[in-house]
Amino acid sequence: MASVPFHYVELRTFCYATEDTKRVESALRRFLPDRGEDDPRDPVELRWSETEGFNGDRIIVLSTRLERTGEISHALRTLAAADEFERVLDELDDRVDEDCSLFLSLDKQAAFQGRTEVGEGITLRAKVEAYPAERETAVENAREAFAGLVERED
């Protein structure tokens, strides 16, 4: 199994007309690696798209897709720092679908404040490597990967 058994991690959030765009971007960037000015790698790019809500109000969708091992590892280590992470591990059977994707909602306000909490506002979708591509294999691979992250945090 690969050191990070995930093909990619996608993160997405909405910025409503009542929210500060820079704060929402900051919340999403909590899960992205911070690249210094002397880092030769390209920064993680956020995609911005604008849509309209039911009442005609502006909604900006911020999203990114992490495919590099280091970027994925950073996002997962940040996730593993959540106080409720044991609950996430207990719920893995319910959070991985038949396409081997792991779904999780994270608290946008907590992320802006520098904390990682399960909640509403930021959607995480991680495609778990599984050979054969079966849900049970994906759950086990995700469980092993997260267990390794928790051990490194201790």
Offer a few descriptive terms.
154 residues; 27% strand; 5 strands; single chain
Structure, explained:
It comes from Haloglomus irregulare. This is RNA-binding protein. Pfam families: RNA_binding. InterPro entries: PAB1135-like (IPR002739), Ribosomal_uL5_dom_sf (IPR022803). The protein has one domain (6-153): 50s Ribosomal Protein L5, Chain: A. By secondary structure, the chain is α+β, with helices and mostly antiparallel strands. The chain is globular. A five-stranded antiparallel β-sheet has the order 2-3-1-5-4. The protein has six helices and five strands; from the N terminus they run βαββαααβαβα. The protein starts with 5 loop residues before the first strand and ends with a helix.
List the helices and strands and how they pair.
Layout: E1 6-16, H1 21-29, E2 47-52, E3 58-66, H2 69-80, H3 85-90, H4 92-95, E4 101-107, H5 108-112, E5 121-128, H6 135-153
Antiparallel strand pairs: 1-3, 1-5, 2-3, 4-5
Pfam families: RNA_binding
Protein name: RNA-binding protein
InterPro entries: PAB1135-like, Ribosomal_uL5_dom_sf
Q: Summary?
A:
This protein is α+β, with helices and mostly antiparallel strands and 154 residues long. Helix content is 36%, strand content 27%.
